[in-house]
């Protein structure tokens, strides 16, 4: 097995990580073992470049963000894992549904009604299993993959060009690794963005997410069984996600303004159940369900970065930026960014151009498409917005709205959709 000390080989008698085969020099180092890092390392390694992928936590590790957009199909196709996804036992996701603050359920948005190809169905995934699948795939394609390895620093020369990284393995041994490119997939830790002062929070989306898991929650019926459901609270000050996973487990999370939900030092568990009492669409779904595990929180998670690439480095996934989780765009964006950045890195090595311009050559097109999801998020948080009312007023936009929910954001503009949406909200004021 190449690399791969994360597969419990440390349990072999006499084995020491300090004797592992991590090299002192690589073409490319990818930091962060999530979807962005795993996909980027796979593509770069597949192209024949010496690639190191490191993750600070033991793999598999817990992570929230289980719902996929159907457009992940094409990323999985590129990575060669669509068949593995079908065989993994993940909950199938064929629709999205919305529930108003009064408990009124919208008609499900069935993706197949818009496009009946296999790419219009996706999955709800346990991230521990899903991320490890991607980590394993990177190793299969030639990357040296190490978990329990922390990134300590990134080295630059006098011209601000990356020359290497400093890492610390699970035995506490610090190593300096030479490389020509660093791909930062460190998620919301945003290693390089924080180091270089590039992180910019969205002042209008200062939210907190409070979540846990339940067994036995009431799901939709038939093809709507695996639907992601978005449910508003009575005052529309918060909303809940309902994400059905395999084995009868459902992810349930509450999202609202940080200042509102946690004012006065409110405890997350108390806030969660207070908001649940205010959510008429969710209460009956959990009436006979059993909560599993602890209550978890994440705060102020919507942000962007003022610079996405430099000489010898590029940001991907949540290290690049993150949009509110309401439309489940996070994993799809991470995969898309990882592949696009990796293609730019491979092309850069081929042309001997590892400049900021080359490594970030994909970012303008990506941001142009991602803006439509960001606009849809901002519309969602307007109390004047109702997806059901908008669909009645503008049935001609149902296909384009479904496109956004599927993740098809790079092919055509949604400008007219949002002009009509803005007028709809103004009329509701």
UniProtKB/TrEMBL annotation:
Catalytic activity, EC: 1.-.-.-
Q: Which GO terms label this protein's molecular function in UniProt?
A: FAD binding; oxidoreductase activity
| Keyword Oxidoreductase listed | yes
According to the entry, every stretch annotated as the FAD-binding domain falls at: 27-204
Keyword terms: Oxidoreductase
State the Pfam families in the record: FAD_binding_3 (PF01494)
Q: Which InterPro entries does UniProt cross-reference here?
A: FAD-bd (IPR002938), FAD/NAD-bd_sf (IPR036188), Flavin-dep_Halogenase_NPB (IPR050816)
Oxidoreductase: present as a keyword of the record? yes
Identify the PANTHER family for this entry.
FAD-BINDING PROTEIN, SLR1998 PROTEIN
**Protein name in the entry:** Putative oxidoreductase
């Amino acid at each position: 097995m190449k690399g791969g000390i994360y597969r419990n080989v440390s349990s072999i008698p006499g084995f020491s990580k300090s004797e592992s085969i991590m090299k002192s020099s690589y073409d490319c180092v990818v930091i962060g073992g999530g979807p962005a890092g795993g996909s980027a390392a796979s593509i770069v390694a597949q192209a024949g470049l010496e690639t190191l992928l490191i993750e600070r936590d033991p793999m598999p590790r817990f992570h929230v963000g289980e719902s996929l957009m159907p457009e992940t199909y094409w990323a999985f196709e590129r990575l060669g894992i669509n068949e593995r996804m079908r065989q993994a036992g993940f909950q199938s996701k064929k629709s999205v549904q919305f529930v108003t603050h009064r408990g009124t359920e919208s008609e499900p948005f069935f993706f197949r009604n818009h496009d009946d190809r296999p790419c219009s169905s996706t999955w709800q995934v346990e991230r521990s299993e899903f991320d490890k699948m991607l980590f394993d795939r990177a190793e299969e394609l030639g990357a040296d993959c190490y978990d329990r390895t922390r990134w300590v620093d990134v080295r630059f020369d006098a011209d601000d060009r990356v020359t290497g990284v400093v890492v610390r393995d699970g035995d506490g041994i610090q190593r300096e690794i030479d490389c020509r490119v660093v791909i930062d997939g460190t998620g919301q830790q945003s290693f390089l963005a924080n180091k270089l002062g590039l992180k910019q929070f969205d002042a209008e989306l200062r939210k907190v997410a409070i979540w846990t898991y339940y067994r036995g929650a009431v799901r939709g019926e038939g093809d709507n069984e695996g639907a992601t459901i978005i449910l508003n609270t009575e005052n529309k000050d918060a909303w809940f996600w309902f994400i059905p996973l395999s084995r009868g487990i459902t992810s349930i999370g509450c999202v609202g303004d940080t200042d509102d939900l946690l004012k006065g030092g409110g405890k997350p568990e108390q806030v969660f159940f207070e908001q649940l009492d205010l959510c008429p669409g969710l209460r009956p779904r959990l009436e006979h369900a059993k909560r599993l595990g602890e209550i978890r929180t994440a705060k102020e998670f919507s942000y962007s970065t003022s610079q996405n690439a430099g000489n010898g480095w590029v940001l991907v996934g949540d290290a690049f930026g993150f949009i509110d989780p309401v439309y489940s765009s996070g994993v799809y964006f991470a995969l898309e960014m990882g592949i696009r950045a990796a293609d730019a890195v491979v092309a850069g090595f081929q042309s001997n151009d590892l400049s900021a311009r080359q490594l970030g050559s994909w970012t303008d097109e990506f941001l142009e498409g991602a803006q439509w999801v960001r606009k849809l998020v901002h519309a969602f948080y307007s109390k004047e917005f109702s997806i059901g009312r908008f669909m009645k007023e503008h049935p001609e936009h149902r296909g384009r709205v479904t496109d956004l929910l599927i993740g098809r954001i790079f092919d055509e503009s949604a400008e007219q959709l949002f002009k009509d949406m803005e007028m709809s909200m103004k009329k509701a004021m």
